[in-house]
């Protein structure tokens, strides 16, 4: 197969979205099969309940969702972490994960075991009734916060995440800064997440981080550690938006033509397992939202978890995997290269 040009020009695409499969591209580049290297992280979606309804949300989370991880499943998850010291990071996501009634128990127990905790936070959850204590709780347990802020301008943020979200997000970030988050020497890590507004790839992560830091510092006095740029995945709510606007084929063509073989080595599915709110296991959070289970013959739930088997598992692939390997690559920790 002729190498795919690394271009982001959708007006004159080299390839189209029709007839190009992600598994075949890996074969043609000599990168198949895609095999996990280890499990260092459990990324745990503890529910789809959220106080926001964001246009780019691949979880389809919102205020009317009722899916929440039970205490029984959380206890089993904790036992898996306890029995496998190589799992160093528990990356908690949702929905707004803090709206699960057992969120604080999960965080507290992971901290007792000396594990790193990450909270994928939408920031505005701090202003939900009964949640005002959350910033202090997170600081007390040294939880790393990864917070969504898709732009440093009010109009763009509110367009993607809802009216008034930008100003509430700034208030939340200022609260976190007052507690030491984002400040050098405190050990309290505050990272922000950028998602493109529209069907395009993120810009250079480092350059955009510099812009964010300048704008947030000079305009609002806000400090943070890193910016993660994450490609919007063509699944769930965002897929519906692409189809409604007649942009699906162009976006998939963009992702395919921007395939970067260097990103395959460090895609996040190679070092983590995703755990659904009901305890089922997946290769990544995106597979989870599409109900794409692990490969046949592997443990399928947290109750069957077996590190030795899962750490070298073959990874299931589909077309949305082009989103993680386009351009600089994309993961839950930002660009890959």
Report a brief summary of the structure.
With 337 residues, this protein is an alpha/beta fold.
The structural domain count equals: 1
CATH architecture: Alpha-Beta Barrel
Q: What is the typical, i.e. mean, pLDDT?
A: 89
Tally the helices: what do you get? 11
What oligomeric state is this? single chain
Strand portion, in percent? 5-15%
Question: In words, what does this structure look like?
Answer:
This protein is of the alpha/beta class and 337 residues long. The protein has one domain: TIM Barrel (Alpha-Beta Barrel). It is 31% helix and 11% strand. It is built from eleven helices and eight strands. An eight-stranded mixed sheet has the order 6-5-4-3-2-1-7-8. Strand 7 and strand 8 form a beta hairpin. The chain is globular, with a radius of gyration of 19 Å. Mean pLDDT is 89; it is low at 1-16.
State the main characteristics.
single chain, 337 residues, TIM Barrel, 11 helices, 31% helix, 11% strand, globular, disordered N terminus
């Amino acid at each position: 197969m002729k190498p795919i040009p690394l271009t982001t020009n959708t007006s004159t695409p080299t390839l189209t979205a029709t007839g190009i499969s992600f598994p075949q591209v890996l074969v043609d580049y000599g990168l198949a099969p895609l095999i996990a290297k280890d499990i260092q992280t459990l990324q745990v979606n503890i529910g789809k309940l959220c106080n926001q309804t964001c246009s780019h949300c691949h979880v389809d989370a919102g205020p009317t969702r009722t899916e929440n991880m039970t205490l029984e499943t959380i206890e089993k998850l904790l036992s898996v972490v306890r029995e496998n010291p190589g799992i160093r990071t528990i990356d908690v996501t949702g929905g707004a994960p803090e709206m699960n009634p057992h969120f604080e128990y999960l965080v507290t127990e992971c901290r007792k075991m000396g594990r790193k905790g990450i909270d994928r936070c939408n920031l505005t959850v701090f202003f939900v009734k009964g949640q005002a204590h959350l910033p202090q709780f997170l600081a007390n347990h040294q939880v790393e916060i990864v917070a969504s802020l898709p732009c440093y301008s009010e109009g763009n943020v509110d367009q993607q995440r809802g009216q008034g979200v930008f100003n509430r997000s700034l208030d939340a970030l200022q609260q976190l800064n007052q507690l030491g988050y984002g400040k050098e020497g405190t050990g309290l890590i505050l990272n922000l997440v950028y998602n493109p507004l529209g069907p395009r790839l993120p810009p250079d992560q480092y350059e955009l981080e510099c812009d964010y830091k300048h704008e947030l510092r000079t305009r609002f006095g806000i400090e943070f550690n890193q910016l993660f740029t994450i490609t919007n995945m063509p699944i769930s709510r965002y897929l519906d938006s692409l189809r409604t606007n007649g942009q699906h084929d162009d976006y998939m063509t963009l992702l395919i033509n921007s395939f970067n073989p260097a990103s395959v080595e460090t895609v996040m599915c190679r070092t983590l397992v995703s755990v659904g709110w009901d305890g089922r296991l997946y290769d990544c959070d995106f597979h989870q939202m599409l109900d794409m289970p692990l490969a046949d013959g592997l443990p399928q739930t947290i109750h069957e978890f077996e590190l030795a088997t899962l750490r070298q598992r073959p990874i299931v692939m589909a077309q949305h995997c082009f989103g993680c390997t386009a351009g600089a690559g994309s993961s839950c920790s930002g660009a890959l290269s």
